[in-house]
Design the sequence.
């Protein structure tokens, strides 16, 4: 089961007066990993948006925070594909610090929507092919 | 069961090239409702942070998005207390548009942590008293 | 000379580990005042964007910070029109704390651009009429 | 005259409904270049904040935008030291796209402040030494 890795540094302005990263920024980091995953797979999000007939809005997001993230820290996100459905898919994220400590887990569910009607439709075949390279083996 | 309401307008810069609010900003809006809830209860977060011996970092956050949020839209958040535990509490949020349409649900779990040791401890009594005013009736 | 006022509260997540608002957020607050100014004048930005043949990207922005902005503080922005040119206009902002203390000044220059060609063009007449109500008297 | 370079990719969530980067984010990118400049010089901002007796809040910021920044674009910032004063310094930034096109210029002025009194004081000697490596030759 393939895993996509994205590494980044926690920015000064992402931390709050308590000295730790504001929780919503951790979901922003996960979205950056998703952007880099699509880019590395040959389908950058900025080309996808507004050009294809399917859009992929988020239907759900969740995160569990195990340890605080601090300014200046290098973090590695391991992205994997949790589920590929008929009209949606789920990505899972594990975030680790420099010494391998587990900082957080997160997941996002992306829904395939027909741009014209706003209704859910079957996943774009190119998107499905990219996801299948990272998919868990069938149960 | 008491509910706290917070109303705000979706800002231009919170929306992305697809014309809808970037998902992580919806959790930011929920945190703003939490800030206003504490302020209205006489315990503004900015006085709490760095002054009390307990801090309240988030342990978990989740959101389900039902309809897109658009720039300029007025949104009402209804915040309620989902659970009060020994060392943590859960807040729940329902977000509605101007015609009462249900836009999203979300929840955050806040953990009471001893500032000196970094370990979880029993909830501050003043925080507990505020939460109990909004708590669900005992099962 | 008319002045448009916008009042807001500094959010917890806008402040950094030094306990004060990250400087770029102060320009975000000014843009929110500009959004409210357009809305109050009957031309909300979200209706303007993507619908008119003119767009109004920023050509310049500047700010001078006199006192720190802290979480929870109520701030009033006074927006005035500094200059109306043939193809651009300049807005000026003064930011004040609750006791009238002067926190910052800022200015933004907005350029009228033809959406199709990307070149600057004369200001939209409706925009010009709105600005003139707030304009300084002719020299 | 030494120049420090920082390269980054424009993120999806930094762009607005008009499809271009929200102007205040361009100043955020400049601050990231400043953070990397300090880190590369052996004095990361996160170690500086809250630990030294001097703090370095911004006193002024300005930017002129020449071309739109788009999602997915790779941008290079060239940071140079514009002026080293007794109690403040000025950094200058030029931002370039992948084909060398000039996207924007910006500048920030940082003031040395005594943490205890809140008054301006002479620059920390270690900060001054770092800046002088990048300083313009004396006039």
Sequence:
């Amino acid at each position: 089961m393939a895993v996509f890795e994205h590494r980044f540094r926690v920015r000064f302005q992402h931390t709050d007066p308590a000295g730790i990263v504001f929780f919503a920024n951790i979901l922003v980091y996960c979205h950056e990993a998703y952007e880099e995953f699509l880019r590395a797979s040959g389908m950058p999000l900025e080309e996808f948006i507004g050009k294809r007939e399917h859009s992929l809005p988020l239907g759900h997001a969740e995160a569990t925070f195990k340890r605080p993230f601090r300014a200046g820290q290098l973090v590695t996100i391991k992205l994997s594909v949790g589920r590929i459905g008929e009209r949606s898919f789920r990505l899972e994220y594990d975030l680790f610090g420099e010494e391998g400590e587990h900082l957080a887990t997160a997941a996002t569910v992306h829904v395939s929507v027909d741009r014209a009607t706003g209704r859910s439709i079957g996943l774009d075949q190119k998107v499905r092919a990219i996801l299948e390279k990272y998919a868990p083996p069938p149960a």
Notes: The longest strand of chain C covers residues 74-84. The helical segments of chain C are 23-40, 45-48, 125-132. The beta strands of chain C are 4-9, 54-55, 58-65, 74-84, 88-96, 102-111, 113-114. The first helix of chain C runs from residue 23 to 40.
